[in-house]
Design a protein that fits this description.
Length: 683
């Protein structure tokens, strides 16, 4: 595991400077009923339901003063509920909102007694009065409608400001310490077109609905912003004309200054994340490094500290800040390397982390807190490669852990496969991170049929050593699962990202094939027995797999996959923002004019005659990211070319499957498809 350099002297003392001073006599004094030890191996669970059900408990957030925690809770009938627990008495749980027809999707603390939450039906379609953003106290009182959602009468809702209910397009941004029931909200413009530019920011009183705008004069084309502790807008990041700009407005000034102006894809761009009490910024940038790191920026001197605040060799550090609103400072950072982990800049918090890690060894343990520096009670989210996650209340003063709930019941840790992280050399020498999920009870060098599970994006981070439902489900069916961070994926530095430019269907596809060849050499995979599966870009890669490497895969399965690269540039075919289609896409995907022949050549719709293996194509009929016509036209063309195609369409779904019954159904269809064309144990 690479070391995580932490710059000492950042207001709070370096966590690394006192690595063991408080650990003795603390960690081993923790009281925790471990229960009977589980066997290391148990029979796999091949049924789809427990893997694709909504998590029983999720998105736990601790109140600012660490007295309560709120979380989403799935009831016995599948209802998605907002609940709150008293951390001093974990048995005291209160349900605040939600039902089977209107579920809670997101929530945030406003202060220690008040929450904001979004309520919506499980389907993509909703109408006036059915969904919105609400506020409620933890005792269930003072419920208030703040934002009324609608997709049928958005224009008419402009008059709803008279009743102090905001129209669709407003959303919660962050709480404001010391300002009562006020919170910051922002308004997004261009939702239908996919632009999603920030139009306005305001302090909203969540009891009265009173609105105080703080964004007058804000630069156009804003994609992100940072406010100070009082909620006044100080930093705006804009993107237009292929340029990314950082604008700053100093306290007491009404004028905006451009601090930085660089091309949108310039690796040296600075992304401000937080303003500390002394006015310094915490920013994400590369600035002479291969990977993203956190830096401190002085806005008065216009100077970035030369040494990073936090950096990891081989992995990007892209945010995940843990802040303390009282001290107005960053106290830690959650980092994703091969596995999730936390680095604390405060000595006490660092020692508490070590204590928890010692009593829950082999786990990825995340401490959740409000104002962390004064916290005596925490929530611990503990997970591993085989454990989907469970939550505990940690009383630091009493040195005690109390279990709350498991995230995914019905999947014993011993029934899940081990996951391992590797660096694999591509044919041109590029290092490819690969996560392998091994079937439970199967030795790493015992060959199994391979499923290449390709992540979407493509410019996203795909996987880590944390438990993954899709990979574990496939492993439970007897497959060894490869998740490859092909070139173009983010999270592994600038070179890895840029190596994917204009490589759809080419080197990006070769990376997947190189990982399969590596797995066979390492005796993880059975020669000639692999299938390729994915969604969105992963669905595209699945369809291009048997085109680019006709002898490698026995079958392919695509969910909402892109089939015609030329259509991604049209505003009528996708909700991808125009600023990306007409600037970033030209560099990352290809110029629609100069590279037209390349885009057509590497579009699956034009290569159906080259596919000689069975294909499963699945789509959501209301997909606005990849038009459903992509899949429908591909299926028609492939069948006309004699390809064995199975297809299924989910009428109420979009770019991804939201309903539990549809996720389960799709998983079962995929498992049946693989069983027919790549049966485990039958070469």
């Amino acid at each position: 595991m690479p070391g995580i350099p932490i710059r000492p002297g950042h207001g709070l003392r370096s966590a690394r400077a006192t690595a063991v001073s408080l650990l003795a006599g603390f960690a081993f004094g923790l009281a925790f009923a471990q229960g009977k030890a589980e066997p290391d191996v148990a029979p796999p669970v091949p049924q789809a339901v427990p893997y694709f059900n909504a998590p029983r408990i999720a998105h736990v957030q601790v109140s600012p003063s660490n007295t309560h925690a709120a979380f989403l809770w799935v009831g016995k009938e599948g209802e998605r509920l907002l609940a709150v627990i008293d951390l001093s008495n974990p048995k005291d749980v209160r349900t605040l909102a939600g039902s089977r027809t209107l579920g809670v999707q997101r929530f945030h603390w406003v202060n220690d007694r008040r929450l904001v939450f979004d309520l919506e039906p499980p389907t993509l379609e909703f109408y006036e009065g059915e969904a919105g953003t609400f506020a409620i106290d933890i005792d269930g009182k003072r419920q208030q409608l703040l934002v009324l959602w609608t997709r049928e009468a958005r224009q008419e809702l402009g008059t709803s400001m008279r009743t102090r209910v905001l129209p669709y397009g407003w959303a919660f941004y962050r709480a404001l310490a010391g300002r009562g029931d006020q919170a910051l909200f922002y308004q997004v413009d261009g939702i239908a077109s996919g632009q999603r530019l920030i139009r306005s920011i305001a302090r909203l009183n969540t009891e009265t609905g009173g609105l105080e705008r703080v964004s007058e004069g804000m630069p156009d084309d804003a994609i992100s912003h940072v406010t100070d502790a009082a909620g006044d807008l100080r930093i705006v990041v804009t993107e237009s004309g292929g340029r990314g700009r950082v604008h700053f407005r100093a306290p007491g000034s009404r004028a905006w200054e451009v601090i930085e102006d660089l091309p949108m894809l310039d690796g040296n761009r600075m992304f401000p994340l937080y303003i500390e009490a002394d006015g310094s910024w915490i920013v994400r940038s590369r600035r002479g490094r291969e990977t993203d790191a956190l830096f401190v920026f002085d806005p008065k001197a216009r100077k970035l500290d030369p040494e990073p605040l936090a950096a990891v060799a081989g992995f990007d550090v892209d945010g995940g800040l843990e802040t303390d609103a009282v001290k107005q400072t960053v106290v830690g950072v959650h980092i994703l390397t091969a596995r999730p982990q936390t680095v604390w800049f405060d000595e006490r918090l660092g020692q508490l982390q070590k204590a928890i890690d010692s009593v829950l060894p082999g786990r990825m343990n995340k401490l959740l807190c409000g104002d962390c520096l004064t916290a005596q009670r925490f929530v611990v989210h503990s997970q591993s490669d085989r454990m989907p996650g469970e939550y505990f209340v940690f009383d630091a003063q009493a040195k005690r852990l109390t279990a709350i709930a498991q995230r995914v019941p019905g999947l014993p840790e011993a029934s899940q496969g081990r996951r391992s992280f590797h660096r694999v050399a591509a044919r041109d020498g590029l290092s490819l991170p690969v996560v392998v999920t091994h079937p439970v009870g199967v030795a790493p060098t015992t060959p199994r049929p391979l499923v290449v599970l390709v992540h979407g994006g493509p410019h996203l981070r795909g996987s880590s050593l944390a438990w993954d439902n899709e990979a574990q489900f496939l492993a439970a069916r007897g497959y060894r699962v490869l998740e490859v961070e092909y070139r173009g994926s983010t999270g592994f530095g600038d070179q890895h990202f840029r190596a994917g430019f204009k490589q759809w269907g080419q080197a990006m596809q070769d990376d997947l094939a190189d990982a399969v060849a590596w797995a066979v050499r390492e005796k993880m995979g059975e020669p000639g027995r692999a299938c390729i599966v994915g969604g969105s870009y992963g669905g595209y890669a699945a369809l291009m797999g048997p085109v680019r490497h006709p002898d490698l895969y026995r079958c392919a399965a695509s969910l909402n996959g892109v089939t015609d690269l030329t259509k991604l540039f049209s505003r009528f075919w996708t909700d991808i923002p125009e600023r990306y289609r007409h600037h970033s896409f030209n560099e990352t995907l290809g110029d629609p004019v100069a590279d037209k022949a390349m885009l057509e050549r590497f579009s699956p719709i034009n290569r159906v005659a080259d596919i000689k293996v069975p294909v499963l194509v699945t789509l959501g009929a209301q997909d606005t990211r990849v038009d459903p016509a992509h899949s429908r036209r591909f299926v028609a063309a492939a069948r006309a070319a004699g390809v064995a195609v199975a297809s299924h369409e989910y009428v109420g779904e979009g770019h991804g499957l939201q309903l539990v019954e549809n996720r389960v159904d799709h998983a079962e269809r995929l498992a049946q498809f693989l069983q027919i064309h790549l049966p485990p144990g039958k070469p």
